[in-house]
Specification:
Elements: H1 3-32, H2 36-54, E1 66-73, H3 79-88, H4 95-103, E2 114-120, H5 124-131, E3 140-143, H6 150-161, H7 165-171, E4 195-198, H8 204-221, H9 229-243, H10 250-262, H11 270-276, H12 287-291, H13 315-322, E5 331-336, E6 341-345, H14 348-367
Length: 374
């Protein structure tokens, strides 16, 4: 028990004693004076307090409670704060019941910051035990994988937290409010993919802010200049979507795209085209889609990088965008979609041979009932 709690105990004891003496004297005076009307008024206003002070009515519930209630313990809160929250949520009958019990604990109880699933109308003893049980702590944990599109990530978070999708749509309507470059067309790319644990008190805006700040941390760790954030994240997001699971290929793929940019070649990334059509779960495109220059993410029909990121890049992709591997490659293509084996080529002839190899793999894969090439 800290000094503040000890002072609270003394003050509470003195206050309780003083109130009881005052109430007893007041009731006695009114009764002896035969002031029936006065007693009635007094009782209607202070009957509950008088009953508790006199011990006629218990200030605590009995048993383990019923129903459901969520109580959040925040950083810096002490016993009296927690007692007040429990009473406000209807978990305990009075804050005094819980706080009195807390002051009797030796050694002093320590609370873990977080949200807890409790019940209503619990005895102070049951509430205290429940708050000490890790099983009652609510874990709103969501894993956002690298490469996932922002809208899909927020939809997943919405499902886990119960926060309406409309709230997230509103929260990301103006990305600039989170310090994102005004040139960025959307929040895409600026939410860091990771495993997050949110609190019931979180809102769509606080969640987005937390994810943007985490991405800001990653950008600083990788030495990305503030003025270059949009470019780096755009390139990193393409690398992330095109590279597959083999992280050793990330710097090489970044080099292919950088070489193409340096030579004025179109990137010709199917992943960017697919994103622009709204297909965030595939990198396969049609000839018509690749010919559509109105798609600002179409790097077949338009030169340079697309207008913004096409997904949420992780650390490996960001590092690759900042430090591409040395090499003269201008092409790459996976030749086995199960193992992720990728062939890097310097000439178009070499690349066409690799593409043919992928075609053979896909033909055999489909014959076995596979759908990786669809």
């Amino acid at each position: 028990m800290n000094a503040r709690e000890k002072r609270g105990r003394r003050a509470k004891q003195e206050s309780s004693t003083g109130k009881r003496v005052l109430i007893v004297l007041l009731v006695a005076v009114l009764l002896l004076g035969g002031l029936g009307a006065g007693v009635a008024v007094l009782w209607s206003s202070f009957g509950s307090q008088i009953s508790k002070a006199m011990g006629w009515e218990k200030n605590d519930y009995e048993g383990s409670g019923t129903g459901s209630a969520v109580v959040t313990i925040r950083e810096g809160e002490i016993g009296s704060d927690i007692a007040a929250s429990l009473a406000k949520q209807g978990v305990v009958k009075t804050s005094e019941a819980f706080y009195d019990l807390l002051l009797k604990q030796d050694p002093a109880v320590e609370f873990q910051v977080g949200s807890y699933q409790l019940k209503k109308q619990m005895s102070a003893k049951a509430a205290l035990a429940a708050l000490q049980d890790p099983k009652n702590q609510i874990k709103l944990t969501v894993t956002i994988p690298e490469g996932m599109a922002a809208r899909d990530a927020l939809a997943r978070i919405s499902k886990v937290t119960g926060i309406p999708q409309a709230d997230f749509d509103a929260a990301v309507k103006d990305p600039a409010q989170y310090g994102i470059p005004k040139a960025a067309p959307s929040i895409e790319g600026f939410l860091f993919p990771a495993t997050y644990t949110f609190e019931p008190g979180d809102t769509a805006q606080t969640i987005v802010k937390k994810m943007v700040e985490r991405m800001g941390q990653a950008l600083r760790e990788h030495g990305v200049p503030e003025a270059d954030e949009l470019r780096v994240l755009t390139l990193a997001s393409i690398v992330q979507r095109e590279a597959g699971s083999n992280q050793a290929d990330f710097p090489k793929i970044a080099r292919v795209f950088q070489n193409r940019l340096d030579q004025g070649m179109k990137l010709q990334s199917d992943a960017t085209v697919a994103y622009g059509t709204g297909n965030t779960h595939t990198v396969w495109t049609t000839e018509a889609e690749r010919a559509d220059a109105s798609n600002k993410y179409n790097t077949y029909a338009n030169p340079g990088l697309p207008i913004g990121p096409i997904g949420l890049p992780g650390d490996v992709a960001i590092e690759a965008a900042m430090k591409p591997a040395p090499g003269k490659w201008l092409y790459f293509v996976p030749v086995n979609l199960e193992t992720g084996e990728t062939v890097f080529s310097e000439t178009n002839e070499e690349h066409e041979a690799a593409v043919a190899k992928l075609g053979q793999w896909c033909e055999a894969h489909r014959a076995q009932g596979g759908k990786r090439c669809d």
